Amino acid sequence: MKTILIDGNNLIHKIPSVKALFLKDKNASRLALLETIKSKISRTDKLIIVFDGHGSSKKADIIYSENITADEIIRKKIEAFGDYKKLKVVSSDYGITNLAKECGCEVMKSEDFWKSINKTIMPAGKDNINQNYIYDKPETMSRKDFDEYKKHFT
Q1: Is residue 102 part of a domain?
Q2: For the segment 77-105, what is each residue's pLDDT rounded down to a tens digit?
Q3: How far apart are CA 76 and CA 80, in angstroms?
Q4: Which domain holds residue 27?
Q5: Segment (H or E) for 5
């Protein structure tokens, strides 16, 4: 079991779609980030996302820094952790990553972490098997059909 400690705002600003949502609705973007990450990591891993400022979510995986910075909370969590080999720190902040490296934690830049959990798995052969399938593409799509498609596939 590994604990993944994430600098939440740092990661949000590395993902264009989540960043756009963040500009409209901070809480929605934070929850979307949490649920996306939880769906892509091992179920045995513990997840902690630290966000700057105040928030309304009562999820155990999310910590809001309130009146201090998220970096301060992350530093305290790293220093208090103990078994550093079981801690992965995700941030692109040099102060945080340098401390984590000094302590012996696994460190990933935010953008690298996001890429790693969103890898597409290719089939064993060198070609994608889907390229051989001929899709029946409709010539036009109604707005209603398009909205239905978006609801199921985005």
Answers
A1: yes
A2: 999 998 999 999 999 999 999 999 999 99
A3: 6
A4: 3-117
A5: strand 3-7
